Amino acid sequence: MSGHPEVESYPRFFHMPVLMLMLITLLNDGTLISIGYDTVNASALPQRWNLPVLFTIAGALGFVALVSSLLILHVGLDSWNPDGFFQYITGLEVGLHYGQITTMVYLKVSISDFLTLFSARTLDGPFWSSKPSPILLAAAFTALSMSTLFAVFWPAEYPDGIETVGLGAYKPHQLAFLVWVYCILCWFVQDAFKLLVVGVLTKFNVFGINDTVAEAMQKEDEAKGKAVTVTLGNKRGYQAV
Predict the structure, then answer these.
(1) What is the pLDDT of residue 236?
(2) CATH number, domain at 170?
(3) 158-187 residue pLDDT tens
(4) What is the DSSP annotation of 141-198?
(5) Radius of gyration of the chain (CA)
(6) Is residue 227 pLDDT above 60, yes or no?
(7) How far is CA 129 from CA 42, 112, 153, 209, in A?
(8) Type and span of the H or E element at 37
């Protein structure tokens, strides 16, 4: 909402302090080491890396995470708009201080970062189709609990010159809870989009997703054989000239 004194004080560009990015790395990426102790469903056939399929599914998961982060940022920056979604959903007639928006996005990224892992665990089924190991669940609980506590009780300060303040400092005091609800809803959307992408890849056998190891190796050998034939043919033709 342009023209409001609070909005006029917002910086021109949004970015999180380096400290928050480091906390995401330490808490999430550090505890993600526990994925090595996760339970897996063994395949009846030998497995082979299919990097195009891996990149496509990772891109689908990352796309939803990116869009959902931009969306919650927009809602926060538009929170002083009396006709905006934020005041409609909270019933308040005030918006967010910029420090709250910074911390809110930090919490959102922290939560969705770990929830994405649970969607990535399963390829051809929803995230609940494979039970995670107790070690992974304990790691997720530890990382997400600490991220939530940091976000709620973050002191009012200016790391890297960026305003930050705890989500519990001002109204709505349940802002951290609202962020959690939003992340869980986006998680279901993300998982559904993953299943849609996998379904399309499987139906049309895109990137050979349905091929067994033997079929994939046979296709590679055939491609190499054709390349050799063409190369030799060109070479013989060149020599004949």
Answers:
(1) 39
(2) 1.20.1110.10
(3) 999 999 999 999 999 999 999 999 999 999
(4) HHHHHHHHHHHHH--SB-GGG--B--TTSSS-TTHHHHHHHHHHHHHHHHHHHHHHHH
(5) 24
(6) no
(7) 14, 19, 35, 20
(8) none
Q: How many domains would you assign to the chain?
A: 2
Q: How many angstroms separate the CA atoms of 146 and 150, rounded?
A: 6
Cβ pair 170, 97 in contact under 8 A: yes
Q: Which residues pair with 157 in a beta bridge?
A: 164
In the chain, the amino acid numbered 57 is I
Euclidean distance between CA atoms 68 and 173, whole angstroms: 22
In our burial notation (b when 16+ CB lie closer than 10 A, e otherwise), range 188-197 reads eebbebbbeb
Average pLDDT score over the chain? 88
- Domain region containing 157: 5-210
Q: How far is CA 204 from the centre of its chain?
A: 26
Cβ atoms of 141 and 149 closer than 8 Å = no
Question: Using CA atoms, how far apart are residues 60 and 82, in angstroms rounded to an integer?
Answer: 34
Q: For the purposes of burial, counting CB atoms within 10 Å of the CB of 25, is it exposed (0-12), middle (13-18) or buried (19 or more)?
A: exposed
Q: Are 53 and 89 members of one domain?
A: yes
Residues 82 and 102 in one domain: yes
Query: Tokens 């330490």, residue?
Result: 26
